[in-house]
Amino acid sequence: xxxxxxxxxxxxxxxxxxxxxxxxxxxxxxxxxxxxxxxxxxxxxxxxxxxxxxxxxxxxxxxxxxxxxxxxxxxxxxxxxxxxxxxxxxxxxxxxxxxxxxxxxxxxxxxxxxxxxxxxxxxxxxxxxxxxxxxxxxxxxxxxxxxxxxxxxxxxxxxxxxxxxxxxxxxxxxxxxxxxxxxxxxxxxxxxxxxxxxxxxxxxxxxxxxxxxxxxxxxxxxxxxxxxxxxxxxxxxxxxxxxxxxxxxxxxxxxxxxxxxxxxxxxxxxxxxxxxxxxxxxxxxxxxxxxxxxxxxxxxxxxxxxxxxxxxxxxxxxxxxxxxxxxxxxxxxxxxxxxxxxxxxxxxxxxxxxxxxxxxxxxxxxxxxxxxxxxxxxxxxx
Length: 382
Ligand SMILES: [Zn+2]
Hints:
By secondary structure, the chain is α/β, with parallel strands linked by helices. The chain is built from 14 helices and 9 strands. The chain has helices at 22-29, 40-44, 47-56, 74-87, 98-113, 185-204, 210-232, 237-257, 261-273, 277-292, 299-307, 319-332, 349-357, 371-381, and strands at residues 11-14, 34-37, 62-65, 91-96, 122-123, 133-137, 149-154, 159-164, 172-175. Strands 1-9-6-4-2-3 form a 6-stranded parallel β-sheet, with helices on both faces. Strands 5-8-7 form a 3-stranded mixed β-sheet, with helices on both faces. The longest helix has 23 residues, at 210-232. The structure holds zinc ion.
């Protein structure tokens, strides 16, 4: 067995009504003035205000920036950083899906160390602890509440840059399934598949360890069991709790095992054509699972049995059965079947493949991948 290491350097609370723990978490951090980073939908629904009110109730004033967009940009990070600095706040609360969390992590870096987030691109460039951050996911999910990554879109070069540092991991994560009940069906589907892809890619990654496998297996089990139910009825709190816990474990798994070709190839799809991250992943998934089948060492059957409603046995199992199952799941969740259906055109494939090859995830994908392979996989998914 290869050497491996792990830590989960944060406090995580999961449970119905756990949002009420926010003031307690803020106090534990030693925060005296909070700054909430969220999006327009949660602001309109009054959830931003209820978080601010809860903090103010214990004498902690709270300001907010609620303009994060899907695939958030370098400019949004600049605007949010300026607002944070002007507010005089000393800790951050990320409330929402992956976008507010990516922005909050980036603000936590730039507000403390200066410059532009583009200067911190890559691994190990964050010099030390960032501004203390409490993450409250409202989708299941990106797992961003426990990951060491912030992904920001640089429109000047149509590129999604990744900042990777264990310093980005939020100090606290509060996972309250009640916050998941208002997600539209399309968001539930895209985010749910994204969480499943995190678990699946971390599980198949060449950097997987017994620790990340344990996290990925439980994530696949929880997501496989609950994704259809949660999509069908987002007010089903048991299903919502299964999804948010699965998404959490998947996030921990890929923070240590990284991902694979699906994520390497989906970032350019989002950067060039503004396709939501989860949708891009979901469309690419069956094509890449088929490509990786040659490298399968027995994990495909396990994945199949976590996701399928009827188990398969070793004697009858073939890797294409997992591919078919994932195509069927996309259909059930209303995910478009091809890149063409979401407006992707082949004229950008060359530039997209160059960007995909820059991803660190290519190196840990179970099957070796060249630019030529990426091009034919994009063609196939088109
Ligand atoms: Zn993802």
